Amino acid sequence: MPAPDLMTAELTLTGRITTASNATFLGSIGDTTVVYKPIAGEKPLWDFPDGFLAHREVAAYLVSEVLGWNVVPRTWLRDGPLGKGMVQLWQETDPGQNAVDLVGAADVPESGWKHVLEGQDENGRTVALIHEDTPELRRMAVFDVIVNNADRKGDHILPMTDGHRHGVDHGLTFHRDHKLRTVLWGWLGDALSAEERDGIDRVREGLHGSLGRNLADLLSAEEIASLAARCARLRLAGRFPAPSGEMPAVPWPLF
């Protein structure tokens, strides 16, 4: 039997993801498991326009597709039981893997990991925030800079069994002002690879074609112009940026 039309076939709710800050549901379209975030369930934010977080999630997917790195699972807008919202293909993660972790400060691995920062836990123990040093996470970090991701928490990185890493929860993206908050600061100052530079170039070129036209239905003209400016700055600098501005460099909580 062919897969149901993911745009028009009935979306049935099967559960609610209670850890999410906005209304988020698990659902199914035929045999396909999806995440559904109705626009009506979005909580107002002081610094992002009301009712457009779902649009930003879809815009993040479109940029991911042009980059060619499969950072964001397939994401689209459609009607559902609670009205129009974002729908995304559910991903089964590997519970035995952690792309980002908190470890004792003396337990930071000597290789394969990047040390981001240190702090104290609730017991006064010094702990370190670390993340994998892998091409998959590097590409996600580049993606976050481009889309101006204000909420890259550790749990927003999904470890897949084959070693791939998906990024999810991209409602807080594409702001005109600098908002980058991420746990992926391990490559600060490192030069971009040829693959990463080529990905940025694909987005810059796409903004003059189909990517730009598609984003015009989801973002404001000012937000698209800011996206283009971020790509140009990152390409010119040729290296991972450092934190800047008055915004915190990492989201809270970290996970």
Query: Which range does the strand content fall in?
Result: 15-25%
Sheet with most strands? 5 strands, antiparallel
Strand order across the largest sheet: 1-2-3-5-4
Spatial separation of the terminal alpha carbons: 40 Å
Looking at the structure, what is the overall shape? globular
Count all strands and give the number: 10
Q: How helix-rich are the residues, as a percent range?
A: 25-40%
Report the total helices. 5
Stretches with pLDDT under 50, minimum 5 residues: none
Encode the helix/strand succession as letters: EEEHEEEEEHEEHHH
Q: How would you describe what is shown here?
A:
This protein has helices spanning 53-67, 135-147, 194-206, 210-215, 221-237, and strands at residues 12-16, 25-29, 32-38, 75-78, 85-89, 100-104, 113-120, 126-132, 157-159, 165-167. It is α+β, with helices and mostly antiparallel strands and 255 residues long. It folds into two domains: 12-95 and 134-237, no CATH class; 103-130, no CATH class. The chain has a five-stranded antiparallel β-sheet, covered by helices on one side. Strands 6-8-7 form a three-stranded antiparallel β-sheet, with no helix packed on it. A hairpin with an 8-residue loop joins strand 1 and strand 2. Helix 3 packs antiparallel against helix 5 (221-237). The protein is globular and about 50 Å long.
